[in-house]
Design goal:
The chain is an alpha/beta fold. It has 17 helices and 11 strands. It binds magnesium ion.
Amino acid sequence: MKEIIILGSTGSIGRQTLDIVRDYPNMFCVVGMSCNCNIELFNKQIAEFKPKYVYVNDKFAREKCELCGAVMLTSSEELASIEEGQIVVTAMVGISGLMPTIAAIKAGKDIALSNKETLVAGGDIVMALAKEKNVNIFPVDSEHSAIWQCSGYGKAKDIKGLILTASGGAFRGKSKEELCSVKAVDALKHPTWNMGAKVTVDSATLMNKGLEIIEAKHLFDMPVDKIQVVIHKQSIIHSLVTYNDNSVIAQLSYPDMRLPIQLALTYPSKIDTKLQELNLAEVATLTFEKPDMDTFPCLAIAKQCGALGGYYPTLMNGANEVAVQAFLQDKIGFYDIPRIIEKVLEKGEKTDKITLEGVLQADKYARQIAKELF
Ligand code: MG
């Protein structure tokens, strides 16, 4: 029986992780669970899965938590480092996932990493710590899970480069003029994936793919210039690995996050699944196109920050989180997102070695500057 801790159980990835636990009650149990503020759903989850420990971030929501015998801890970090639990699913949004992920690694727990901002902002620190503590970081992001599978779970040699596929988000094919007037509700209509608001807006700006380039850089120790992006609107091929002989290996399946979540939980086994088997004749057509870097400037910004390293990705991530939040509240327009990020990045300086304290400072600084810009 594998004991699981879920950080962010009421979000899209958290809920789908619980679907898997429900489907395989003899394989998994949940020993710890946290949420931000969706207490109504969280109470239902506690009643069903009976975790030993819980944590609720929002203090008003915390007062309404029905514990059913569970113990309320004082922080996500405390929850991530309880005695029980072999694996922590990090399904929180944004940089809030960084400190609990570090706490879990320090406690020697494997990580099923869904929270990409953790690696974007503090990848050098997190990966070095995982190595030191001999802890596995299993990717839950569908593209990174695909690369992991195509590279013999990251063990293959002779890899020349990676190709990340992108659905293109809600605004694929739109012109700059059209995008000047789009609103949050338009960005939230994702064509192939049903996800949380932040990642759906990131998909619409292509920042999500930019964050994923940096995530892949850290997870697979690959230089940014060896990571390509291709738009693949059907979301059937989840990413590809190019070997030295130019042989390319791809991973295909219908878009369903339960696949990467399940694999992170059952690694190294691939278990019988309740997920739909791929019918290629039914899919019929797979198409590929170059991303439009001019219409979607966030992708180029992220590539640049990923190549520069240091605190640039941290600054970019902090500015993006603030800008996306403002866009979701209709306070700024679509192109204000890259504009704000670029303004914040002007304050950046080249550094080779980063520290955790520096990451937290850079993040705070980026948020402060970004907020002053609208
Ligand atoms: Mg992804």
